Amino acid sequence: EIMIDDGKLILKVANIDKSEKIIKTISLTNNYQIKTYKRINLFNKKYSLPFLSEYDIQTIINATKWDADFLALSFVSNLQQINEVKKIIYKINPNSKIKIIAKIETYEALENLEEVILNTDGAMVARGDLALEIGWYKTTYYQDEIVKLCNKYKKISIIATQMLDSLEKQIIPTRAEVTDCYYATKSLVDSTM
Q1: CA-to-CA distance for 67 and 87, rounded, in angstroms?
Q2: Could you tell me which of 192, 170, 171 has the C-alpha nearest to residue 182?
Q3: For residues 105 and 124, what is the distance between their CA atoms, to the nearest angstrom?
Q4: Rounded mean pLDDT of 111-139?
Q5: Which residues on neighbouring strands pair with residue 191, listed in sequence order?
């Protein structure tokens, strides 16, 4: 399955023509107009795209020059990617105190979870993108595992995505959201978003 724009469009691969580099798909959802700059998720797969774009590199340089407190790495999956960022920071300021937070959003990050947490200052459970990578039913399990590892190694832990989403539209949160926040706090998470 290929999910586009947070799963609003779900495609199933019907045929792959490697010689022409064409993937034919069938839509599993209703009609949906694809927009530019929307993320594509491949369920339980590793990606071969470059980790840092020119924009990312410039953002890291600026954050380092400006003595930012934190730098959150979106879609970080392995130690090599973390080291790419650390190398840029070190080149700009070898004495930088910037803290690196790994946003856990990919299947590969879960495969390398302990290594990722050990080599950063903390982790954010980015539940929205992570759920599109591994499924909603597995996300809560890994949320607990990530927070436990952060607590074990005395790293910062953050749980993000729709903690109190309904408050954007109404004045009282749902029971489910209150329960979500309660259990996040009970797990000893440092921060929620």
Answers
A1: 16
A2: 192
A3: 9
A4: 93
A5: 158
CA dist 141 and 159 (Å) reads 13
Neighbouring CB atoms inside 10 A of 139's CB total 19
| pLDDT for 47 | 67
Beta carbons of 19 and 53 less than 8 angstroms apart: no
pTM of the model: 0.81
Rounded CA-CA distance 90/19 in Å is 43
Q: Which whole-number Å values give the CA distances from 111 to 44, 92, 161, 179, in the listed order? A: 11, 31, 21, 28
pLDDT at residue number 23: 87
Element (H, E) at 108: helix 107-111
Give the C-alpha separation, 175 to 180, whole Å. Answer: 9
Q: Which of 133, 120, 129, 115 is nearest to 160 (CA)?
A: 129
Helix (H) or strand (E) holding 42: strand 40-42
- 52: how many CB neighbours lie within 10 A of its CB? 15
Query: What are the angstrom distances between the C-alpha of 70 and each of 66, 97, 137, 145?
Result: 11, 9, 30, 23
In the chain, the DSSP E strands lie at: 2-4, 9-17, 22-27, 40-42, 70-73, 99-104, 122-126, 156-160, 191-192
